[in-house]
Amino acid sequence: MPVPELRHVPAQTPVAVVFGGPSAEHDVSIVSGTAIAEALVRAGYPVEQWCLGLDGAWWRLPDGHRRDGRPQSAYDDPTSLGAAGPERAAEALDRLAGRDRPPLVFLALHGPFGEDGTVQALCEAAGLAYTGSGVTASAIGMDKAVFKRLVRGVGLPVADWLEVRAARWAADSDGVLASLDAFARSTGDVRLMVKPSRLGSSVGMTLAHRPEERGPALEEAFRFDDVALAERYVAGARDLEVSVIGNDPDALEVYGPGEIMSGHEFYDYQAKYTAGLSQTTQTAEVTAEQRAAILDLARAAYRAVGCEGFARVDFLLGADERVLVSEVNTIPGFTPISLFPTLPAAGGYTFADVCARAVDLALGRAASRVAHRTTTSDLPR
Q: Would you state the pLDDT for residue 24?
């Protein structure tokens, strides 16, 4: 299958790749963003790189910057890399928007601020085109509780869960633990997967094996969010992932499923990002019927959320062969061990092709937007 022709890319489209950010996924974002920037440079795009600090400050790295194997900690002090700044988000984006040829913003930010609709809204306000999903889909994809409610509401299968708010935990921890105990009994398994609602990369996530581990698991989740999910444990589950690319809900490209064989009991942060600890395959061993069902569910989840550009949809395949939608990642990892940018190889894509396609789709969406400024004559006066 040939890679789709890039139809919306003007010659020498400038691209500003933005990575880092004020979330617990800061370090992963640096790996993704620098890899994207280097791929786009090789593909011929004029690229500038912006590294966001944990304090939210924006720093422009020198032209031609390459990571060259530096550890993520090297970006803790951007001045040591020759970066210009710091600037506040609004200042940086307004300056980009004020250029004669404003760049497309390639958002390689993971987690809160970068993946939850916040920076997307800032780009919208500044009038800058950007990659990936819009504000609404980004917010839904980041919030696991809202996502699960939405996709279950349209009939997609998800693991049962309970939501716990930090305020309730602080006011009535015994009542919360009693609710979790009743929930676990109803699932037939004492184990519960506890995680923050609005975070990714398995940060703050704990598999509570016994009742006495549930309280500490909630405390860990509440370090990162004020809403935690306690999910039914899916025993013997396989972790499957599908790459979805496209703006048009009726013309989506889907690739996979790939599979992750975790080096830990579950696919936690270390298992995800420690080289050699986990194994992945771009071709999961599933039946033709299962593959068709998984790809259909990936399309359905992408459409339900309203994703655009690209996303990764994750699944659990239980020992009972039941397929469950786990989550959607609207800015999936672009690291050397990430499945999202490698699964489209089945369609003829290279890593650079995936990045260029993201740029093309973003420009296509921007070009198709209705350009309308409200005037006084539009007001119901």
A: 86
